[in-house]
Amino acid sequence: MKSIKIILTGATGMVGEGILMECLENPEISEILSVSRKPSGKKHAKLKEYIVSDFLELDINDDHFKGYDAVFFCAGTSSMGMNEEDYTKVTFDTTLHFAKAVLRHNPDMVFNYVSGVYTDKTESGKMMWARVKGRTENALRKLGFRAAYNFRPGFMKPVEGQEHVKWFFKPFIWIFPIVLPSKSLTLREVGKAMINAVQKGYPVSTLEIKDIKNLAI
User: Fold this and answer.
1) Residue 1 above 90 pLDDT?
2) Residues of the chain with pLDDT > 90: what percent?
3) Cα–Cα distance for residue pair 106/180, rounded to 1 Å
């Protein structure tokens, strides 16, 4: 099977760091371009870094994005304390601008977007963050990628050795997979599923927890 070259965002967050670590160790990945606002702190022969202070200011013709097979879009922020306008800017506007920039250079690429459980594809529910995420998912599917997959993980156990894990999250890492196994994943599973989505495809574009587990095998 052909190895793949990916663009990854969010390497300094828990989700992005965990998926980056899986990709660095996975022989199916030959090159990773980490696009982030600050360095990941990791060094590896497969890893390149492109520091961008504001994704919304990316040039649509940016040559850094040429020659890649997929994007693993793991950047994101909590909606806590944000109004809908501001959350839309950092979630919908930023993601779509980035997607258009990479697609321009790679029309046959796959876009994997980390969304969330309970995302609202109708864009009309009561939860603000779920509406905005749903709008983002729907828009990505219409851009013209070879495939656009929306990953909706639940609790994600970090990869051993991760540095970007919030202190308040650490006490619960061991208990969630035991108490709620059907709602829990490991970040290695999410990373493997993303890689397999590029190489093998999947019959649906929105992957809930059970789909991610199936695709990670």
Assistant:
1) no
2) 84
3) 39
Q: How confident is the model at residue 15 (pLDDT cuts 50, 70, 90)?
A: very high
In whole angstroms, how far apart are CA 156 and each of 34, 175, 186?
Answer: 21, 12, 5
Residue with the larger pLDDT of the pair 160 and 31 = 31
Residue count of the chain, please give it. Answer: 217
For the record, the structure tokens of 103 come out as 């697609």
Secondary structure in 3-state letters for the chain: CCCEEEEEECCCCHHHHHHHHHHHHCCCEEEEEEEECCCCCCCCCCEEEEECCCHHHCCCCCHHHCCCCEEEECCCCCCCCCCHHHHHHHHHHHHHHHHHHHHHHCCCCEEEEECCCCCCCCCCCCCHHHHHHHHHHHHHHCCCCCEEEEECCCEEECCCCCCCCCCCCHHHCCCHHHHCHHHEEEHHHHHHHHHHHHHHCCCCCEECHHHHHHHHC
**To which residue do tokens 């619960």 refer?**
172
Place of tokens 């909706």: 152
Spatial neighbors of 5 by CB under 8 A, at least 6 apart, are 29, 30, 31, 32, 33, 67, 68, 69, 70
pTM: 0.93
At 172, the pLDDT band (50, 70, 90 cuts) reads confident
β-bridge mates for residue 47, sequence order: 32
